[in-house]
Amino acid sequence: MDFELPGDLADFRAELRARLRELLPDGLRAKALAGRRLQREDYLEWQRILHAAGWGAVHWPRQWGGCDWDASRVALFDEECALAGAPRQLPFGLKMLAPVLLRFGTPAQRERFLPPIIEGREWWCQGYSEPGSGSDLASLRTRAVRDGDDYVVDGLKTWTTLAQHADWMFCLVRTDPEARPQAGISFLLVDMHAPGVQVRPIRLLDGEHEVNEVWLDGVRVPASQRVGEPEQGWGIAKYLLGHERTNIAGIGVVKRELERLRELASRPDARGRRALDDALLRSDIAELELELLALETTQSRMLQPGSAPGAEASLLKVVGSRLQQRASELLVRVAGARALPFQPEAFDPPAGFEPAAGDDYALLAAQYANWRKVSIYGGSNEIQLNLLARAMGL
Ligand SMILES: Cc1cc2nc3c(=O)[nH]c(=O)nc-3n(C[C@H](O)[C@H](O)[C@H](O)COP(=O)(O)OP(=O)(O)OC[C@H]3O[C@@H](n4cnc5c(N)ncnc54)[C@H](O)[C@@H]3O)c2cc1C
């Protein structure tokens, strides 16, 4: 079900839908839709295809190769990419760092770092969280000490998504240990290939290697790779988090999963019965659809030209993540016992591999386990609710 859009946006959506389906290679689409393991090259290939089509960074200014689309067009683009079954465009460089560089970076930093992001040549990761400093991010302890033209960085970052593929990490570090926590932080760009950087995998519930620890041991970072002034890092970090939260509302993803849910629920089983014949399930699916429509309406009201994401970003994140999790729960309910066999080979199936319950069910339970993360990353939902309460003066 599509949210009803005014004429020009409806045409825009139709054009996106048709073109994205032409651009996306079938193999990549099948892999992403089945939830199989995507490699570095898969993500970068999609980025390069989009870039060649002029859509590498639709929210960036034209001067940097973007389309300068307003927030509602960007949201439609993200949604249509998800519906088409594309791998997600990695947000770390494109949607988190780029707005920071455009606002706080030097001309030299923009020249150096923006083109490889849009062209799919360099991969970024986010070095914010540390053990004991997740929700309480300002307590972070990674130290950067000035030594001539460099900083020397020591510490440990954790939960760093896909750092195993990264060329660069934007990183919060403590440069003034005497100042109060928020006032002693700077924002550095760390070369992941520099001596002293070590990436160690953390396995998630589904057994996959998606997040990491990043150990920093005497890593030299040129001071020219600091963004903003020394000790301005906290303001920059908060600016970036606002962008991160709008990106994880995941409306397109929930729509795509709803389509899948309806399809699987309408299939007859061996005895000719369909999950959709169950009135309770139909009611739960309808409720999810309605809540999604309400979220879309809310998002479209918020994303007016010129508006900057503020406390509203928290609302989109909380509701969007709940709906993603609800969709994955319903999918497992529809699959029933077919979701039970867990065969890790299904993530990267060798030739001739036949999943026990068939391709459509092979990774549903893994996805259900994996998606517990969406209410944690980007700032947990409990923290978002605290932010919303504060914004409402409660
Ligand atoms: C899959 C995944 C990917 C991630 N990727 C990255 C990444 O790429 N880069 C990065 O820097 N970080 C990343 N993170 C880290 C993420 O931002 C943190 O996990 C998150 O901020 C929560 O911090 P924490 O894990 O330390 O939990 P804690 O802060 O210890 O919180 C534990 C629990 O207590 C609750 N809680 C804490 N404080 C309060 C409070 N004041 N009021 C109410 N409840 C509270 C939390 O909601 C949570 O339920 C990722 C996390 C996950 C799970």
Features:
single chain; 394 residues; alpha+beta; Butyryl-CoA Dehydrogenase, subunit A, domain 2; Butyryl-CoA Dehydrogenase, subunit A, domain 3; 3 domains; four-stranded mixed β-sheet; four-stranded antiparallel β-sheet; 12 helices; 8 strands; 45% helix; globular; binds flavin-adenine dinucleotide
Detailed description of the structure:
The protein has 394 residues and is of the alpha+beta class. It folds into three domains: 7-89, no CATH class; 124-231, Butyryl-CoA Dehydrogenase, subunit A, domain 2 (Beta Barrel), CATH 2.40.110; 248-391, Butyryl-CoA Dehydrogenase, subunit A, domain 3, CATH 1.20.140.10. It has twelve helices and eight strands. Strands 1-4-5-8 form a four-stranded mixed β-sheet. Strands 2-3-7-6 form a four-stranded antiparallel β-sheet, with no helix packed on it. Strand 2 (143-147) and strand 3 (150-158) form a beta hairpin. Helix 1 runs parallel beside helix 4 (71-84), helix 8 (251-265) runs parallel beside helix 10 and helix 10 runs antiparallel to helix 11 (364-370). The two termini are 36 Å apart. The model has no long low-confidence stretch (mean pLDDT 93). Flavin-adenine dinucleotide binds next to strand 1 and helix 12.
Strand adjacency order, main sheet: 1-4-5-8
Ligands: flavin-adenine dinucleotide
Shape from CA axes?
Answer: globular
CATH topology of the largest domain, by name, is Butyryl-CoA Dehydrogenase, subunit A, domain 3
Query: What is the percent of helical residues?
Result: 40-55%
Structural class: alpha+beta
The CATH homologous superfamily of the largest domain corresponds to Butyryl-CoA Dehydrogenase, subunit A, domain 3
CATH architecture annotation of the largest domain: Up-down Bundle
Proportion of beta-strand residues: 5-15%
